[in-house]
Design goal:
- Belongs to the short-chain dehydrogenases/reductases (SDR) family.
- This is 3-oxoacyl-[acyl-carrier protein] reductase.
- The chain has 15 helices and 13 strands.
- The chain is an alpha/beta fold.
- Helix 7 crosses helix 15, helix 9 packs parallel to helix 10 and helix 10 runs parallel beside helix 12.
- The longest helix is centred in the C-terminal third of the chain and has 24 residues.
- The protein binds nicotinamide-adenine-dinucleotide.
- The site of nicotinamide-adenine-dinucleotide has 27 residues, from helix 7 and helix 13.
């Protein structure tokens, strides 16, 4: 469903009306296009004294072709403000944040990027350092709400020893791939990560399975993973067979018709993967999902069972069997698709929110276990994304979903897909146990 309001607000007449009446002003977001440079202009890099990340980050950005500035003069525009806050050891030291962001806030161009780098509070040497590092969340989330014009702001906690492995995350957050991701706290763990030989095709040689891939977000995931080099198996129910075949053709992949709620679905899937040329699967994306909305007082038990069955029990059973049969090798990636409803709850969605909170639980329960196998597990939590699912919403709710976020607009399926591709990358080897919202910093559950 087209966002007519956003189209109007970006027209000549619309811009005037929106400004005069103080209406929501959805900017055109800078989304990634093949061949785009990492950033469209210089990156301003600042650091609190004693920070351990500024130098590795400077080298990494320079190697990626970015122009780095340590300061700018009046009227100079930059495409990103990156601040290493790891040197901040107590609350007095937080003043370094003001000293950097106050003068440079206006230097950031539309769809610019703010990245604050911190140390995970639990890895710090003292309570005062832990408190100061925890404070960074408030700054970052507020900047996301203040700057507008499609600017995104994130806090990246990099564990000591994880400096080099932060590259894939920084590249994602700086680029147009993260257009609809803002106000997030992302954790990069300690350890090494392989550097892809081609950052435009980091998934070369990898086999990915995407569930619910016949349409909507799942089809976008299949396309983006294929664009990034993966061979894709697109899975969906037999009733969606024609659309599924279309996606498989377009991505030069394979189509697999399977109802994930069938009793023998995990067994059939495991057999299919074991018999394939890879003898398993490298990237597993649990995207298939349904809604059956009613308040709990009006809901019949079948609506409850169907939603829990597709959204939570199916991924849990599939993971269980594929891991038991060793069909996800070291270097493997599992990504779940949760929802902001699973974080904030939502009226009329007790079944759905329960299932999606369960997807977050799945990530948290499995991350430590899978780390021992060299496999990561993360989830994305989309907010309002323009798909067939949200086109069915009543108009009032749909408009609220679109506007009540820092971008004043809904996201696109590709925004969720790009986030999943980053998590699936070999370079994201130390990113595990994260739940990353793709919601334009929605006010729901913020
Ligand atoms: P969609 O309804 O357009 O697509 C979902 C796909 O899953 C369909 O092709 C469907 O056939 C498939 N599917 C359903 N049951 C299945 C089963 N038993 N076995 C195999 N495939 C099955 O939905 P979408 O909007 O693209 O959503 C994709 C995912 O994103 C879902 O998990 C959804 O909960 C989540 N999500 C969507 C939004 C949004 O705004 N659209 C927001 C938050 C989360």
């Amino acid at each position: 469903m087209a966002d007519r309001y956003a189209n109007f607000a970006n027209s000549g007449l619309g811009r005037t009306v929106v400004k005069r009446l103080g209406l929501p002003d959805p900017p055109r977001l800078r989304r990634f296009k093949a061949g785009d440079p990492l950033v469209s202009g210089p990156v301003l890099l600042g650091a609190a004294p004693g920070g351990r990340l500024a130098e590795p980050v400077r080298k990494l950005l320079e190697a990626a072709g970015a122009e780095i500035k340590d300061q700018t003069g009046e009227g100079v525009r930059v495409s990103a403000l990156v601040f290493d806050a790891t040197g901040i050891g107590d609350s007095d030291g937080l003043r370094a944040l003001f000293d950097f962001f106050h003068p440079y806030a206006r230097a950031l161009e539309a769809s610019g990027r703010v990245i604050v780098l911190g140390s995970p509070p639990e890895t710090t040497a003292s309570p005062s350092e832990a408190i100061a590092q925890r404070s960074l969340e408030g700054l970052t989330r507020s900047i996301g709400k203040e700057f507008g014009r499609g600017v995104t702001a994130q806090l990246v906690y990099v564990a000591p020893g994880g400096e080099a492995a932060a590259e894939s995350t920084l590249r994602f957050l700086l680029s147009g791939r993260s257009a609809y991701v803002s106000g997030q706290v992302i954790r990069v763990g300690a350890g090494a990560a392989p550097t892809p030989s081609d950052w435009d095709r980091p998934l070369d040689g990898r086999l990915a399975l995407v569930t619910g891939a016949a349409r909507g977000i799942g089809a976008a995931i299949a396309r983006v993973l294929a664009r990034d080099g993966a061979e894709v198996i697109a899975l969906d129910v037999p009733a969606a067979g024609d659309a599924l075949a279309g996606v498989a053709n377009e991505t030069r992949g394979r189509a697999l018709q399977l109802d994930l709620t069938a009793a023998d679905a995990p067994e059939r899937l495991a057999g299919y993967l074991a018999a394939g040329p890879h003898g398993g699967v490298d990237i597993l994306v649990h995207n298939a999902g349904i809604t059956r909305d009613k308040t709990i007082a009006r809901m019949d038990s079948s609506r409850w069972d169907q939603v829990i069955g597709v959204n939570l029990t199916a991924p849990e059973r599939v993971n269980g069997l594929l891991l038991e049969r060793d069909l996800i090798p070291s270097g493997g990636r599992i990504v779940g698709v949760a929802s902001i409803a699973g974080i904030a709850g939502n009226r009329g969605q007790t079944n759905y929110a329960t299932s999606k909170a369960g997807v977050i639980g799945l990530v948290q329960a499995y991350a430590p276990v899978l780390a021992e196998r060299g496999v990561t597990i993360n989830a994305v939590a989309p907010g309002f994304i323009e798909t067939a699912m949200t086109a069915k919403m009543p108009i009032g709710l749909r408009e609220a979903g679109r506007r009540l976020n820092s971008m004043s607009q809904g996201g696109l399926p590709v925004d969720v897909a790009e986030t999943i591709a980053w998590l699936a990358s070999p370079g994201s080897a130390t990113v595990t146990g994260n739940v990353v919202r793709v919601c334009g910093q929605s006010l729901l559950g913020a």
